[in-house]
């Protein structure tokens, strides 16, 4: 969550607001949303969650390592969830982390020593 807020502050419109919302109304999941008034170029979308890519053209920028969104996605998936993004000129950009309310315990997933 902190990475998404940091990205929203860094990449959003200079005088735009940052929104943070927790939506627990769904029966099966909780949604965490971070939004800003900035937009993401269409050509960047295929690369957003790739490791070591931070500017959409396959190269790292000076602003970061290009790991943040990749880590956000991996953590969400490890908890049985996922992360998505919507970006339009009209409404800005919103990242949504969706996590299940419960994660079924899988037999054999833990090792005793």
What features would you describe in this structure?
This protein has 113 residues and is of the alpha+beta class. The chain has one domain (2-100): Heat Shock Protein 90. Helix content is 19%, strand content 26%. The protein is built from 2 helices and 4 strands. It has helices spanning 2-11, 68-78, and strands at 19-23, 29-36, 82-88, 92-100. A 4-stranded antiparallel sheet has the order 1-2-4-3. A hairpin with a 5-residue loop joins strand 1 and strand 2. The longest helix has 11 residues, at 68-78. It is globular and about 50 Å long. Mean pLDDT is 85; it is low at 56-62.
List keywords for this structure.
single chain, 113 residues, alpha+beta, Heat Shock Protein 90, 2 helices, globular
- Report the oligomer: single chain
CATH topology: Heat Shock Protein 90
User: Could you report the average pLDDT, rounded to the nearest whole number?
Assistant: 85
Low-confidence stretches: 56-62
Number of beta-strand segments: 4
Q: Helical segment tally?
A: 2
Elements, N to C (H/E): HEEHEE
Strand line-up across the major sheet = 1-2-4-3
Distance linking N and C termini: 34 Å
């Amino acid at each position: 969550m902190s990475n998404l807020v940091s990205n929203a502050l860094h990449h959003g419109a200079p005088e735009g607001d940052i929104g943070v919302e927790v939506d627990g109304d769904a029966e099966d999941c909780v949604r965490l949303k971070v939004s800003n008034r900035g937009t993401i170029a269409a050509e960047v979308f295929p690369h957003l969650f790739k490791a070591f890519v931070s500017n959409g053209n396959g190269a790292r920028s000076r602003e970061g390592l290009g790991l943040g969104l990749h880590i956000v996605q991996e953590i969400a998936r490890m908890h049985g969830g996922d992360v998505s993004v919507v970006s339009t000129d009209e409404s800005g950009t919103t990242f949504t982390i969706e996590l299940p309310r419960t994660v079924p315990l899988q037999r054999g997933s833990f090792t005793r020593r």
